[in-house]
Amino acid sequence: MKHISYSKQTIDDSDIQAVTEVLRSDFVTQGPQITAFEEALKRYLNVKHAIVVSNGTSALHLAYLALNLKGYEVFTTPITFAATSNMLHEVGAHVHFIDVDPLTGIMEVKALEEALEQANPGAPKAIVPVSLQGIPADLPAIYALAKKYNAKVVEDAAHSLGGEYSYEGKNYKSASCAHSDLATLSFHPLKTICCGEGGAVTTNEDALAEQVRLIRNHGLKALPNTYLREQKAWGFNYRMTDLQAALGVSQLKRISFFLGRRRSLAHRYAEIMAQEPYRDHIKITPLCEGSSYHLFVIHFNNLQARDFAYRFLKENGIETQVHYVPLYKFQLYKELLGEMHLPGAEAYYQGCLSIPIYPNLPQEDQDYVLDILAQCCQHL
Ligand SMILES: Cc1ncc(COP(=O)(O)O)c(C=O)c1O
What we know:
CATH superfamily of the largest domain: Type I PLP-dependent aspartate aminotransferase-like (Major domain)
Low-confidence stretches: none
Largest sheet: 7 strands, mixed
Strand order of the largest sheet: 1-9-8-5-4-2-3
Oligomer: single chain
Number of helices: 13
Distance between the termini: 23 Å
Helix content: 40-55%
CATH topology of the largest domain: Aspartate Aminotransferase, domain 2
Strand content: 15-25%
Number of domains: 2
Bound molecules: pyridoxal-5'-phosphate
Structural class: alpha/beta
Mean pLDDT: 98
C-alpha cells in the first residue's frame, strides 16, 4: 500500500554538500554560516534584523522576553500550535484567546477589537496573530488596533515564510515586521524551508534585536578587550548551529521553487475539489495568492464526517492532520482560563483536515489522494 505523509522536507545534493562542507570546516557552531543565514533572511524578508535560533519555540520565547511581556494581557488565537501560547504562559503573560475565521482559522480582527475595547485600559497589552496555514494574518488592521490601544505585536510566522500581503498598493512579506514589532519563524522539516530544527526572530528595532541576541546566548555580554563578560539578562542557550544554518542558506536559495510547487498543488486540489463528488461534502480554505501554502486545509460538514475521512484516508495509507484542536480544550488551559467555547474556532476545528502538500509530492500521489477522497465522499 502507498504511504503518503501530509508534509515532508525537500533535501537535495546541494543541501547535503552545504552541510558536509561545514562538517569539514573549523566551525560546526557559531561560525560564518550563522551570519550568512541571517543576512540571507534579512535580504529575502526586507527586514533590518534576523536572529537565527534553535527552533520556532525558542524564537517565540525570545520575542516575548525581549518585549518583557510578564504581567501583560496578551491576545492570541486558540487555533495554533501550543508553543504560541505556552511560551506566553511561560513568561508570565495572561493569555486571552480570540475567535477565528471558520475557514482560514485566522484571528478575527473584529473579535480582537471587542476584546481590546473590554480590556482594562491601564493594563499593558500585546497581540500575537498567527499566519496560519501560510496565509498572513490581517497585520495592517491588527497593527492599527495595536497603535490605538498601545499594544505590542508579535507575528507568529512559523507557517508563513514566503507568504505575502499587500497594503495601500505595496507588497510586504510575512515576518518583514512592516506591521509588527517582532516576528518569529520555524525551520522545522515540515515548514517552507528546513534546518532539521531551527527558527528565527525578526524585527526592525535595534534595541529589541540586541535583547534577543543577548538572551539567545545566556544573557552574557562580552566586554571589549578582555576575557570578562557581564550577565546583562537572564538567558538561555538558544543558539543555532552552523550545520543547521548552512542547510538554511542552501534551502533559502530554492524557496521560489518550493513555493511555486506548493501553489500549483493547491490550485490543482482546489480546481478538482470544486467538482463532483467533492463539492457537496468538502469546502476548501479559499485560495490566497499570498499564502505560502504550508498547509492545505479542507473542511467537512461536521466532526463525524471529518473523523470518518481521517480514518478512511489513514486506512488507505494517507496521513492527514488536524491543525488544530482549540487550545482552550486542553486540561491545563481549562485550569488556567476556565471553560471556553468560541464559535469560529469550534466550526474550524470540527471540519478541518490538512491533506498532503509538499514540493516533491508527485502528481500521481496527489491523484491518489483525490481518488481516495472521492471514495470517502461516497460514504458520507
Ligand atoms: C504556529 C506555530 N508556532 C510555533 C511553532 C514552533 O516551532 P518549532 O517546532 O520550530 O519549535 C510551530 C511548530 O509547528 C507552529 O506551527
